[in-house]
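Sequence design from tokenized structure. All designs in this work follow the same two-part layout: the structure record, then the generated sequence. An example of the structure record is given first.
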């Protein structure tokens, strides 16, 4: 078991919920009669996490994510099942856990450090490193109840990573930090990963999950419904969010289609497949998705900074009052590079009738780095807000793919997108 950092076998967690406070009292006075409703926050979770692995945990509020992490961190005891944790755990669960609001920052560093297993001498040795990372200045001598949420999480994170844990658990804590601190935290997490630390990471930020995790689990109603690569898990999660928001959610059918994993390493089994997540309404048929060059010729590659056209053809088997079509470009990991739609572009199609065939052509520049990119396609009805829709008709990933080739006439650059910078140099001579 040395190669396993965390192992859960058939783990469940049940809480008692009472309709009113008096019911709790009645149960104490009359223990033979239960007045509680049993709420299963976790149901039969089995999960292994290898040493050095980074696992993202995703799900809607109330899905059981935080309860799962608390069971692993041993701040909650499971109702059933076995939990095996191999190594020192450092956990950033909810804001405020492990800190006494009446203590100063300095006192809490020593108090929390001891909880994490450090001696007074070890904490004293690391203290300057901790306050330097936290960047809260003289507030280190003030009670933490006077801290802003950002200051609090700075100090909590600084303490958590200072112990060089075998297992680091982070539950949405970084969401309250500013952009500079978040970047600093991600750099530190990457350092710990390279040192072999196992990471459990809960976040609604899919980009962060893509960057930090090589595997993800989707939680729903206390169950782990998908354990796969982050791309697949986030695709299913987003599809379920669309279904939840849809005014006709009962008619939204989410399908998981198996297809070969073209991104798999050569050493893996040829039988390895990806589960492709799609929403496909019977009221709309996607007839074609084509990538064209400036001359209208079908292409599968483009030189960076040149122009592509995305041609989408659909057949309508139902009339719609406010139809919209959109697309997103994703890199090989699934991270979204760009996304828009006719509603966001303020290009209304108006009312469309059953039996109509439509071709919508998006033209766009491609100032991207070399690599493979995919197109995701969306069709919806009833736009409102900032790109939200009342009905989801089509939502399909990998509808098309293209390669971006290096532009030898351009500057040398690195990153995701070429900002095409200009430069001016001013020189003055002093006599």
């Amino acid at each position: 078991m040395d190669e396993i950092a965390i192992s859960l076998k058939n783990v469940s967690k049940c809480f008692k919920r009472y309709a009113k406070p008096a019911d709790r009292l009645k149960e104490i006075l009359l223990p033979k009669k239960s007045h509680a409703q049993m709420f299963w926050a976790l149901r039969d979770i089995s999960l292994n996490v290898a040493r050095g692995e980074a696992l993202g945990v995703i799900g809607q509020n109330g899905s059981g994510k935080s309860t799962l992490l608390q069971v692993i961190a041993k701040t909650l005891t499971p109702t059933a099942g076995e939990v095996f944790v191999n190594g020192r755990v450092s956990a950033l669960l909810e804001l405020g856990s492990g800190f006494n609001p009446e203590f100063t920052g300095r006192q809490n560093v020593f108090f929390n450090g001891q909880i994490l297993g450090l001696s007074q001498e070890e904490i004293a040795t690391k203290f300057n490193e901790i306050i330097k990372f936290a960047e809260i200045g003289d507030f280190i001598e003030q009670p933490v109840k006077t801290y802003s949420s950002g200051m609090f999480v700075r100090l909590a994170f600084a303490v958590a990573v200072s112990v060089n844990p075998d297992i680091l658990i982070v539950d949405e804590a970084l969401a309250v930090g500013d952009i500079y601190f978040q970047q600093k935290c991600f750099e530190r997490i990457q350092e710990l990963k390279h040192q072999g630390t196992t990471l459990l990471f809960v976040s609604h930020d899919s980009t962060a999950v893509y960057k930090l995790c090589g595997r993800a689990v989707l939680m729903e109603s206390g169950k782990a419904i998908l354990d796969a690569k982050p791309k697949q898990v986030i695709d299913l999660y987003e599809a379920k969010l669309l279904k939840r928001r849809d005014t006709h959610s009962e008619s939204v059918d989410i399908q998981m289609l198996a297809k070969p994993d073209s991104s798999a390493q050569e050493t893996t089994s040829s039988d390895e497949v990806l589960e492709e997540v799609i929403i496909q309404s019977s009221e709309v048929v996607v007839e074609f998705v084509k990538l064209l060059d400036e001359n209208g010729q079908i292409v599968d590659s483009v030189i960076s900074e040149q122009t592509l056209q995305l041609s989408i053809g659909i057949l309508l088997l139902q009339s719609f009052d406010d139809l919209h079509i959109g697309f997103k470009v994703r890199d090989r990991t699934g991270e979204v590079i760009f996304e828009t739609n006719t509603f966001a572009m303020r290009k209304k199609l108006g009312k469309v009738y059953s039996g109509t065939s439509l071709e919508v052509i998006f033209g766009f520049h491609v100032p991207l780095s070399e690599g493979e990119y995919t197109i995701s396609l969306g069709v919806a009805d009833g736009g409102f807000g900032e790109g939200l829709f009342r009905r989801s008709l089509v939502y399909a990933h990998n509808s098309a793919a293209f390669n971006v080739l290096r532009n030898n006439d351009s500057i040398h650059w690195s990153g995701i997108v070429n900002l095409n910078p200009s430069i001016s140099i001013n020189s003055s001579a002093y006599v």
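Residues 4-230 form a domain with the Rossmann fold fold (CATH 3.40.50.300). We note this feature because it recurs in several other targets discussed in the main text.
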